[in-house]
Amino acid sequence: MTSPDDTTASTATTAPRAITTDRAPRPAGAYSQGIEAAGLVWTAGFGPQDPATGAVADTVGEQTAQVLRNVLAVLAEQGLDASDIVKATVHLQHLHRDFEEFNRAYEEFFTPPYPVRTTVGSDLMNILVEIDVVAVRRPTEDQSVPSTSPRA
């Protein structure tokens, strides 16, 4: 049985918490740059705007690199990096035309095992690529990792 104090502690550790950084573009609407809850971090869908200048590169490869720098800036606020990403959702303005160049730039940021990824064609607003990710906080050494083996 769970005491009221246990429930409160559990809720406090899983309640969504906004993540903000000056190293990624500010939100253009009513959304957070990132949210952490229950050991996961979700980022907003970031475009390729340079957070310092607002500049947008011309090619999908250059835009992809900036988008991923923006995403990683949010994760870095929580001590996370590209190896913590488990899911990426990618929107390309010109899916067929730009996929190969996008993928070459994307691969520069990741090593196996790669995060799962969904890549779709979308009608984007004056940009060629937008990406959002989900990252997982790894257990610290003092936390036990649950077993994934089947029960006997």
UniProtKB/TrEMBL annotation:
<protein>
    <submittedName>
        <fullName>RidA family protein</fullName>
    </submittedName>
</protein>
<dbReference type="GO" id="GO:0005829">
    <property type="term" value="C:cytosol"/>
</dbReference>
<dbReference type="InterPro" id="IPR006175">
    <property type="entry name" value="YjgF/YER057c/UK114"/>
</dbReference>
<dbReference type="Pfam" id="PF01042">
    <property type="entry name" value="Ribonuc_L-PSP"/>
</dbReference>
<feature type="compositionally biased region" description="Low complexity">
    <location>
        <begin position="1"/>
        <end position="28"/>
    </location>
</feature>
<dbReference type="InterPro" id="IPR035959">
    <property type="entry name" value="RutC-like_sf"/>
</dbReference>
<feature type="region of interest" description="Disordered">
    <location>
        <begin position="1"/>
        <end position="29"/>
    </location>
</feature>
<dbReference type="GO" id="GO:0019239">
    <property type="term" value="F:deaminase activity"/>
</dbReference>
